[in-house]
Amino acid sequence: MTEPTCPMHYLDIGAIAGMIRHRSVSSREVTQALLDRIAALDGGLHAYGLVMAEAALAQADAADRQIAAHGWHGPLHGVPIAVKDLFDVEGFPTRAGMRLRGQAAATRDATVVRRLKDAGAVLIGKTELSEGAYSDHHPSVVPPRNPWAADYWPGISSSGSGVAVAAGMAYGSLASDTGGSIRWPCAANGLTGLKPTWGRVSRHGAVELAASLDHVGTMARSAIDAGILLGAIAGTDPDDPTASLAPVPHFPAAAGTDLAGFRVGVDAAWNLNDVDAGTRQVLADALATFSALGAGIVEVGFPDVAQAIADWVPNCAVEAAVAHKARYPAMKSDYGAVLAAVIDAGKAVSGMDYQEILLRRAAFRGRVDRVLATIDVLLTPVQPFAPLTLAQIRTLGAQPDLIASLQRYTCPFNLSGHPTLTMPGGFTGQGMPVGLQLVAPHLREDALVRAGAAFQARTAWHRRHPEV
User: Fold this and answer.
1) Which among 251, 261, 302, 429 is most buried, taking Cβ atoms within 10 Å?
2) Rounded Cα distance, 367 and 381, in Å
3) What is the pTM (predicted TM-score) of this model?
4) Of 26, 27, 84, 416, which residue is the catalytic one?
């Protein structure tokens, strides 16, 4: 672990965008530098499933020409961004961590990809992920490696996105989260991630795992950066009728250096029961920081999540079976054992059982709404224990209690659809990052950016980088 430093590949989006805007460095120079870094590092880190070098350099050259001739379009203009490989990028295959026969190149961009291009971003590559965005990598895929320590878990399923940004091989990434897939990689890699309200961002052109649980979001180095990315991709979309019609705020405008009048909610029992000492200390330190920033700390009683966590698995399984019905079981031999098992499990859930899950889910969402109506954000852990090692993860399937603990603070907010911000709040004695989570009412991502930006203006956890 190093003290905070800022070589060019670790600058935040605003800083590198300013340099490109004022032409102290060209987008091509920045893009080539990151491509060189990917070439040097990714053979060991395995963050990328596909590096789009030629297309990226062409986009960088176009950005440089546009800036010189017509001016700067905004804070993503000319900035290299990664794309999780479940979003369609025209001209490239979308493998979604799978290795199916006959995977052809996409003929059209996903809505979020098109919007990044419209913002002038340079799409540098497609990042690796677990198979179908579920919990394990396809047997033919070498999993991404945590750049902080090779024997630690890099998270799932947006693991490649987390590794790419943490290792300075992209300035941010498109990602998705069905049960924790933005939050776990952000916590594991020391990043900041925004899982927005379900429907805030179009899912058109994204490979489904479970449609009503899938959230399209962003991963970056700071709350402001995550907000910049979210602002570019959010909004209504005629190609996705579930995309919200609500206007999209300018999220970075919410950023400030104090939280006067802001309310941070805490359920002390939920946050402390069966939570390890290191994570408790990170939460205590975060509360002290929020208080020093002027926020009021409000005790709340969060609804019990045990049933919600139990319901997440069959809910996800049924929707995964629907998502894969055109290929499974016809192409079953191409599937890994874990994803095949969840699809089979989904097929076995009865219609009546699924309806009961949906009714319980609606009731749970209402209970969460009631709690969040009294505060601006809720503070929780991302997970109740220290960063996991690969040895612990290899035996995860034989530890149902550990799985339930890992899901305790993540899956409930996929079921309820509420937005979350994950960011680093400290480090272990072994030098591994520890994340914390903020949750806001529906469509209040601006509150998350405000709280996260104020916290990060006062702390420097998000400015630490791995030694790679």
Assistant:
1) 251
2) 20
3) 0.97
4) 84
